[in-house]
Design brief:
The chain is α+β, with helices and mostly antiparallel strands and about 240 residues long. It is built from 6 helices and 10 strands, in the order βαββααβαβαββββαβ. The protein folds into 2 domains: about 120 residues, Alpha-Beta Plaits (2-Layer Sandwich); about 110 residues, Alpha-Beta Plaits (2-Layer Sandwich), CATH 3.30.70.
């Protein structure tokens, strides 16, 4: 039995790494008493999958993880509720109970928006994600500075960006991933809504797009911007 959890990574935890996020949520599942299925072998792990990880410094309004539940554990949970006075086996809202228990133990900064069943036989959820919508606030520039540079970016067929890794430098075309950029007129701080495409798990970061604007006469220190992912689109 697989359930999908839609949750929020809020402002107070935006600087947690993806590894820290997964660790905190797994610990919360254990504290909440979820009957999570485990892998086999000498080092069993919870069968929990996380998707479209956020970089450090980015908050997320609608993030997703899948949790595989052990059917025997679910049956024990149902029997325990039946002993507490539930009328019938089929009347117990297991998802509601799991949601309540998980919400109660989540660290500050995280919250649950929805828990629902998904078909365990469907294709990998990561491959179904088609895009992300971001809101970006930039303190050091005005919308009058931003708009011309963004317009030039959008007119390009290709905008190459060099991504430096510890052992290699990789070049990616940012333009093919950016579906749209909208500047909110007169906003202060300058606010941008940016929709970025996903391609079988591959995507780019809004910060990279902002850094590339130096090619069009606008230098932005991306360490000073506030980035929130508002929505994940999927098939």
């Amino acid at each position: 039995m697989r359930v999908r959890v839609k949750y929020t990574k809020g402002d107070k935890v935006r600087f947690l790494s993806h590894l820290d996020v997964t660790r905190n949520l797994r610990m919360a599942l254990a504290r909440a008493g979820w009957p999570v299925a485990m892998t086999g072998g000498y080092s069993p792990k919870m069968k929990v999958s996380f998707y479209a990880p956020l970089p450090v410094g980015t908050a997320g309004e609608e993030e997703y993880m899948d949790v595989v539940l052990d059917t025997k554990g679910i049956a024990r949970l149902v029997r325990a509720n039946a002993k507490c006075g539930s009328r019938k086996f089929r009347d117990i809202d297991i998802l509601a109970q799991l949601t309540k228990a998980f919400s109660r133990v989540l660290p500050e900064g995280f919250s649950v928006k929805q828990v629902y069943l998904v078909d365990d036989g469907k294709q990998n959820f990561e491959s179904q994600i088609t895009g992300s919508l971001y809101r970006i606030e930039v303190e050091e520039v005005t919308t009058e500075d931003l708009s011309p540079a963004i317009e030039q970016f959008l007119t390009q067929e290709q905008v190459l960006y060099e991504l430096e890794r510890p052992k290699q430098t990789r070049t990616t075309d940012l333009r093919k991933f950016v579906e749209s950029i909208e500047v909110v007129p007169g906003s202060s701080p300058a606010t941008i809504f940016m929709k970025i495409r996903h391609d079988n798990g591959r995507t780019v970061r809004p910060q990279w797009v902002l850094e590339s604007l130096s090619e069009f006469g606008l230098d932005i220190d991306t360490r000073e911007v506030i980035v929130d992912r508002l929505k994940v689109y999927f098939d």
